[in-house]
Structure prediction request, 373 residues.
Amino acid sequence: MKPGGMRSAAPGALDATPALCGALGGRQVHSHWSGVDVSRRPKLTSQQLDQVAHRVTAVAHAEVEGLSRPDLSAEYCKTMQQQMGSPSLEYRHQDGMNYTRIWDDVIVGSCVQTPGDVDWLVEKEGVSTIVCLQEDKDCEYWDLDLAAIKDCCTSRGDVKHLHLPIRDFDPQSLRQRLPKIVAEFSRQHERVGGAIYIHCTAGLGRAPAAAIAYMYWCKGWKLKDAVDYLVARRPCGPKIFAIREATADVLYWSSRKEVQISVVAPDNTEVVQVAGLDIGWGSTLTMDFDPATQRYVTRRLLSPGRFQFKFVMDGNWWCSADYPAHHDGPNRNNYIEVTLDSDSAAAVDRLVSEEGVMTLEESWRMVEAMQRL
Prediction:
């Protein structure tokens, strides 16, 4: 596949040139115009230019009046930069969609904000499938009307909307959810053709990870090549190790092992839970008290790899000295390594290494798995 239109950006930083205006007859003028042929811009009538001027003035007043409110984009960027470990990444929601055509039929970008964005993607970019990786709470944070966006896709009839949520900034959720998500949107994409638009919130974490996994698992690309190709065109910070671990999960699912996690709780503690592991940071498991050991215990069947976790005691998150710990962004988490006793250990070690190269036989098995999941 050949790269499509590229946006100009400084190395290591996303080009976030502000959009010209807000809605023009239901269609947004998007910030992805930066660095592309101006002939692709719509011709504006004098009435539309008046709308532009009115909108710019309204936005300016709104920004001045809203200085006392938390700036959603600034707060989100602060969290994103901490979690991704990259202070150069930036997202300005108020500028509208920004996106990059990575391959001829794969576009990675920020969230669809209005039904007008759907019209733009279909009519200007040839999109036939929109994959939304945002959770409902992401949409609530940005005050997005996801129902209206879905209704627009349904009423048009020429674009399919797939809502396949992954928890933001949660590599375990990415690892757990990615195989079935890629399997679902790849089947849809292969069936209808056209271009696929994959988005999360900023288009810098979950969405590029999904696009990379699609090229790795379904299109025969080596993982490193897919990462290098995408990041060169859209600077971003996807959790690549989660893709490696998800690959091993799919190919060596039968190699799971039962693992026990336990902890001593302070006196008078009422509820002891654990978060992370294979359930992600958005969920918790209540642990059982073992009178014989005086510890709270839970057991899980886990695939090979490293699993981060943290204990939650009466609502307070706690890192235990009984297990190794490391920093993931600003957070210090416990972790456990699940190893194999079988001949599969060498294969899994290879797959989760930085190269992450599948053998030809594994590639065929992965393609079959994508059709089956």
The two ends are 25 Å apart (CA to CA).
